[in-house]
Amino acid sequence: MKRVFALFLTLGLGSSALACTPAQSAQNVRAAAQATVSQRMNTAALVYGFMYSNVRHDVHIGTPTIRGQTATVRGTLNIRATERASGKAVQGSYPGTVTLNKVGTCGWRVTGYKQD
């Protein structure tokens, strides 16, 4: 019975559970960068909420470069808000590069950011 179960697990998991294709890796790099930037922007919006209202942002992530266990991806953060004191609309565009390290088989974790 143990052999049948082991064979079933091996066949059921297949090679995709053991390895990550380059396309999956690239997609996961982009998703990790997007999620981290968005999370940090949501936190920043709370902090700057006393100065700005209607804070909105969007993140555009480019094609990642993956070299072994490290990846970099360039992107642009666009921010729009309204100054509370003047009612004036403000906006900014901030290009930057995110660095990531591989975690596990197919995961990625952001380890740094540099504004370009």
Automatic annotation (TrEMBL):
Position of the signal peptide: 1-19
The entry's keywords: Signal
Top-level taxon of the source organism: Bacteria
Name assigned to this protein: Lipoprotein
Organism, scientific name: Deinococcus radiodurans (strain ATCC 13939 / DSM 20539 / JCM 16871 / CCUG 27074 / LMG 4051 / NBRC 15346 / NCIMB 9279 / VKM B-1422 / R1)
